[in-house]
Amino acid sequence: MPENLDQFDLAILDHLQEDGRMTNQELADAIGLSPSPCLRRTRRLEERGVIDGYVALVDPAKMGLGVTAFLRIRLSSQDDASLALFEESIASFPEVMECYLMTGEADYQLRVLVPSLGAYEDFLRHRLTKVQGVAQVTTSFALRPVTYRTKLPHAEG
């Protein structure tokens, strides 16, 4: 098991990933512990950074963000300064939901949410391609989500 987690810790993580708003009493009942040790374990997982935070998952389409684009970015140079400049710039764009430094043909992979194709064009032409060092952008648009998970799988130990 990762990070010296036992079956109770894993159960806490499973339940909180399904419902982060459940009360400590509900969590304790669900995993078969009394409330005090359940709360101690949850706090320990938070303090160790295993639980990184709590969020509400919001439906992008219901917020008017109906277009999901996946972008592969190639930079003109891959030195540390170029990577840092790109990463700093991308972090300031609220449309960029995820950004990964990649191996292979692209230097970065991004997931971008925008309200329309016109908004994507504006983002691409007036912001993303203005970032120094961006040499090539290849975009694929998602037609619909097939699988979307926020709950992590258990790592095999």
Descriptive terms for the model:
157 residues, alpha+beta, Arc Repressor Mutant, subunit A, Alpha-Beta Plaits, 2 domains, four-stranded antiparallel sheet, 5 helices, 4 strands
Describe the structure.
With 157 residues, the protein is α+β, with helices and mostly antiparallel strands. The chain folds into 2 domains: 46 residues, Winged helix-like DNA-binding domain superfamily/Winged helix DNA-binding domain (Arc Repressor Mutant, subunit A, Orthogonal Bundle); 81 residues, Alpha-Beta Plaits (2-Layer Sandwich). Helices cover 35% and strands 19% of the residues. The protein contains 5 helices and 4 strands, in the order αααβαββαβ. It has a 4-stranded antiparallel β-sheet. A hairpin with a 6-residue loop joins β2 and β3. α1 packs across α3 and α2 packs across α3. The protein is elongated and about 55 Å long. The termini are close together.
